[in-house]
Amino acid sequence: MRKTMLTGVRPSGSLTLGNYLGAIKNFVDKQELYDSYIFLADLHAITSYIEPKKLKHAIKDAIAMYLACGVDPKRTTIFKQSDVLEHGTLGFIMTFQTKISELSRMTQYKSKANTCHKDGVDTGLFVYPTLMVADILLYNTHIVPVGKDQQQHVELTRDLAERFNKRYGNTFEMPDVYVAPVGNKILNLQNPLEKMNKSDDGNNKGTIFLLDDIDIAKKKIMSAVTDGYNRVHFDEDNQPGISNLMSILSKITGEDFSSIEQRYLGRGYGEFKREVAEVVADLLRDIQAKYRIYCDEELQNHILVEGAKQAETIAKETLFRVKQSMGLQ
Ligand code: TYM
């Protein structure tokens, strides 16, 4: 029996080079090997307020982006989370199985809760990992490609699946996380101590968006913060900026770090940045050309309707099994 792979992206803004290199590329590279599911995590996008118009646009943007990045609807089921109601139901059930201490430990929650405004932290931010648990378990998922920041949530999924299976009998498949060795945490170009995020406080200079104007994207790479060592060398602790650019280059071209280091022996950062800028520009040009084709609304609707039907079939079976195990059915 073929194994199942699943991942999702929150459509809460334009997708970034971090989303592509940390998750989507890994998914695309493996999609032929698995029964593959990729979804728009739109319920996750509303864990904090997002303007409805912006959300609608972000959903369309994300589906066109999935396709432009190489997700193949003939091989992969593409769907929108909110179209498959079982996510909500299983999310609810899994929330009841989770200890407050487990959710309080989540580093994503801790870091985002710190930046929330003074009128309080939305419950959505606190419980969203258990919805993610449901997203994964509904499809009997074996492998979940994500960036480093989501690893803890997949580990929580394993803990909860194990607890559920012990309590109610074998019901869930145990998922494995796949965090690629290179590019699992692309850093902000202006502050290489922080992750590259969809929302970048410092006027977006630190984040490359997949739809960035090509010249602007190149400028962002050229003005990336580096260090005074003046040697192209992979050392995440002492040279985070240069190491980040090396990760970007290596992840896109496949060249390993030692080969990059060899090529740049005795050469300056300017030349190195120019190469990274060109490689990123080529990638963006390719994605953007395809993106324009996939903005077709009819095509998108067709894919989402078909995707939801396929996803729903599996999700319903799993939820039925869960209810049986728990005595709800
Ligand atoms: P989200 O939308 O924040 O990010 C989508 C994917 O992109 C990865 N990522 C990065 N990887 C490397 N470097 C970066 N700078 C970077 N920024 C983002 C994330 O790790 C993620 O893999 N909760 C999830 C979406 C989700 C999900 C799921 C994923 C919901 N349910 C089930 C997998 C399985 C999220 O907010 O991802």
Write the layout of secondary structure elements.
Layout: E1 4-9, H1 17-30, E2 35-40, H2 42-45, H3 52-68, E3 76-80, H4 86-96, H5 100-104, H6 107-114, H7 123-137, E4 143-145, H8 151-168, E5 176-178, H9 214-222, H10 240-253, H11 257-263, H12 269-294, H13 297-326
Parallel strand pairs: 1-2, 2-3, 4-5
Residues 6-10, 18-19, 22-23, 41, 44, 132, 135-136, 144, 146-147, 149-150, 184-186, 195-196 line the site of tryptophanyl-5'AMP (TYM).
End-to-end separation in angstroms reads 28 Å
The major sheet is characterized as: 3 strands, parallel
**Structure ligands:** tryptophanyl-5'AMP
Specify the structural class: mainly alpha
- The count of helical stretches stands at 13
**Mean pLDDT value:** 96
Give the low-pLDDT segments.
none
Order of strands across the widest beta sheet? 1-2-3
- Strand residues, percent: 5-15%
What percent of residues adopt helix (DSSP H or I)?
Answer: 40-55%
Helices and strands, in N-to-C order? EHEHHEHHHHEHEHHHHH
Q: Please give the radius of gyration in angstroms.
A: 20 Å
